[in-house]
Write a structure and sequence with these properties.
Blueprint (H helix, E strand, L loop, with lengths): L7 H24 L21 E3 L2 E4 L6 H7 L2 H34 L5 H7 L2 H4 L2 H23 L11 H24 L5 H8 L4 H30 L2 H6 L7 H11 L3 H28 L1
Helix pairs in contact: 1-12, 2-12, 3-7, 3-9, 7-9, 8-9, 9-12
Length: 293
Amino acid sequence: MNPYRRHPFIRVATVLVYLFLYTPIVVLVLYAFNASRTNILFEGFIPSFGPLQTSGSLVTQSPCGPFHWFCELSRNREVGAAARNTLTIAFISTLTSTVIGTMAALALQRYNFRMKPFSQIFLYIPIVIPEIVMGIGILTLFSQLFGVLNSALGLAGDSRLSLGLGTVIVSHIAFSVPFVTLVVQARLQGFDKSYEEAAMDLGANELVTFWRVTFPMILPGVLSGALLAFTLSLDDFVITFFTTGPGATTLPIYVYGLLRRIITPQVNALSTIWIAIVLTAVILLQRLQNREA
């Protein structure tokens, strides 16, 4: 009997798992090309290009053809502003949390200090507690802090400290740092210190050793942590909902607002573009990781 032959049950189970995971995504993308103005039923694709024509709740003809809802989305200024906010928050929070998380992982892995066991345990608290609890806690912290600072500094009107883009960035950093730390720390578990010792024996100082030896060896772990932080920031809704303010609406918050009014295929078009962006980022980082490894 061939030991590498797969049992039919394994094949069926594999197919069912993939269907369970990816069928909702396929349906979401399919509805981005829906001819109906509502997302209740799929009425087929918009058949032809030409001047916009409608029949009841159906779009029968559009200058963009089947890509009508993508064209409508491109003319939506609110979507553009929300996308800029989301990417700004994601890039800044990812960069900052990656630096802090990497330094924390190095400190926890290499040094012994009195609070090390507690520091290790505390890393899991933002991960295991419900996001809504953390969101409420961060909101309370900002409210109390801003109240004290506004009173102490005599700030009033538009100059008062309030929730906005900065508070969302700080919240995402606080939420992402534990994830980055644990991922980088896992990479450091099998790290061979003899490479660093050899570099220092050859005359390299600690800084040169880190940049020329340590960092390239742990780079796949750092990139994995950065990718995790980036995707968490892009998709986060709960913490962002509690810490956002005027002018800091992100795409998840904007989509939630659309769903409360009316569900149109614009939501699916937006989600399709978002999936493509995240998938492209994952592929690029995966290739970079393979090259570094």
